[in-house]
Amino acid sequence: MPLVMNRLLLPVLVFCAAAAAILALSSGVIGVDSAALLALFPGSTAGDAGQIGATALLQLRLPRVVLALLIGAALAESGAVTQALFRNPLAEPSLIGVAAGAALAAAIVFTLIGSSPALTAYLLPIAAFAGGLGTAWLVLRLTRWEGQTRMSTLLLAGAAVNAFVAAAVGLLAVRADDTALRSFTLWMFGNLGRAGWQEIAVVAPALVAVIVWLPREARGLDALLLGESEALYLGVPVEALKRRILILAVLATACAVSLAGIIGFIGLIVPHAIRLLVGPRHRLLLPASALLGATLLTLADTAARTLNAPAELPVGTLTALLGAPFFLILLLRQQNTLESV
Q1: 88/82 Cα distance (integer angstroms)
Q2: Among 33, 46, 329, 338, which residue's CB has the most CB atoms within a 10 Å radius?
């Protein structure tokens, strides 16, 4: 039975991701009917209603669906490899300080420049990306010693930097006016509606590269689960592997945060859930995590757009509301399994 599940899992998850994308494209305030689909073709005779539906489909919903699929997949895979590096199922890329650095940069933009869409449309994602990469570089730099990256020190350094950045964000929030503070708070909770095709085109190559490349590291990650000494004995270049994995996870998280804000729990619960189904082998764990992460974030964004229409709910809030109870259920199930052994 487990072998059959392993063979069917990826096709089932591909179908779920496709179904989630179709549901997201067809759901919203503006209906997408046959006239809207007809208006997608050049020279069509669809009326104004069809043209409005086609515009909503191509310029509003499709970019969000593409962004949700890419970010969900990248965050889930990054969470899986981060958990392998730390050998801790509770680890995720935010431990390295990426999200905290992006939040600090965003707070600076909102406090010093304001919440004008014209000013923040391009400056905000650039600042968040730079802040995330800068903080992660600082954490990684602090943990390098004699050419090695110490994972235990990395965890402690990340916690210290995250605490410092959170305090700095709090100080900036005190200085911000009500409008800027509200805009920053909504950004912190995550939103996929800010990016269009131009912004997606900038980050999509990096996200796709990370999603495709990380499964190539499956053998090294499997060996690393045994311990660094054991992985070295098996011929795995541990330090080079750790550097590559950390750089890719940081890059994916920084790209995601720069366009969508902070979206929690995708990188934490998705790899854990897949690991309970198919085990720890990364050859299947990583692509399955990517597909499930893409599906969950697409469904969460669809709910964020439709549950309180025409207003939108923060997608990061929905992922936390759904993810936290689900994660607790997984932990209780795992604890009951261990007690029964």
Answers
A1: 8
A2: 46
Amino acid identity of residue 251, one-letter, is L
144: β partners: 149
pLDDT for res 292: 95
Residues of the chain under the 70 pLDDT cut: 1-5, 29-56, 114-121, 146-149, 330-331, 334-341
179 token code pair: 């409008």
H or E element in which residue 110 lies: helix 98-112
Q: Where are the alpha helices (DSSP H) in 143-226?
A: 151-175, 178-188, 197-213, 218-224
Q: Read off the tokens for 131.
A: 């802040």
Beta carbons within 8 Å of 24's beta carbon, 6+ residues apart: 61, 64, 65, 68, 298, 299, 301, 302
Q: How far apart are CA 250 and CA 129, in angstroms?
A: 10
Q: Which amino acid is at 38?
A: L
Place of tokens 């503006």: 30
CA distance 126 to 254: 10
Closest to 129 in 3D by CA, of 213, 60, 195, 186: 195
Provide the token pair at 226.
């045994």
